[in-house]
Amino acid sequence: MFDFNAPKDCLKGKKILVTGAAAGIGRAAAVAFAQYGAIVLLHGRNEESLNPVYDEIEALNLEQPAICPLDLEFAQPEQYEELAALIEQEFGTIDGLLNNASLLGARSPIQSYDQSLWMKVMQVNVNGSFMMTQAMLPLLDHDQPASVIFTSSSVGRKGRAHWGAYSASKFATEGLMETLSDELPGISKIRVNSLNPGATRTQMRTWAYPGEDPKTNPTPAEIMNAYLFLMSDDSIGTNGQKIDAQ
Ligand code: NDP
Asked: Is 166 among the catalytic positions?
């Protein structure tokens, strides 16, 4: 596991937007960020899907979260701008953005990969992260340090057969991270890194490896060290890095 012992309250006062917070790793990250003191802005496909994580954070008596619904498959650039305007109105600025929401698509050879599914995976995984980040950059750019995390995968660093659009989308995600992280030093206090969670016990992992015993993989809550590190001020100075959570 990534070696970081998160100090209690290391995210106190920070406002952090987590995409794909309804389930899996995004949900665990949202709860962990709140447990370490952050006000979490929960993004998901719709309000209904976010209610359970909202209720979980409320039941723990943590800082009250906010709900930010937006379906990344269909959202137009104006809707990202509208979301940013609403967040600015309510919170002024934000201190962190975890781009986590993704689709797996099909485990299929490129030769026969369904073209409409390819477009859908690219729309959610690449264009969605791009538009979300572009809309949020003005809110992240202020006099305090801020952190953007892009979620990668082992197949975003080395391609493997039958990972199709998902693999290509994660390579694109790494490219987006590298490009942005090279643009911001000197003109802002925003640091930008990518994070590969590694095999983790979620719905996506089950879809990718249906024959695997889920218990062989850690739960999302067990891989949070790297997430907490990258969101906390301990990672100031870490920029343009490809981090592994495990
Ligand atoms: P899950 O499938 O469990 O969760 C994905 C999240 O993304 C869900 O909350 C889902 O919402 C959301 N999402 C998907 N499509 C949309 C959309 N159109 N609009 C809004 N939200 C959407 O995946 P994981 O938690 O496993 O994965 C989290 C991240 O980690 C992903 O980026 C994944 O690629 C990466 N990863 C995961 C690994 C693993 O072993 N689990 C390994 C390597 C990387 P909804 O529930 O409504 O569909």
From this structure: yes
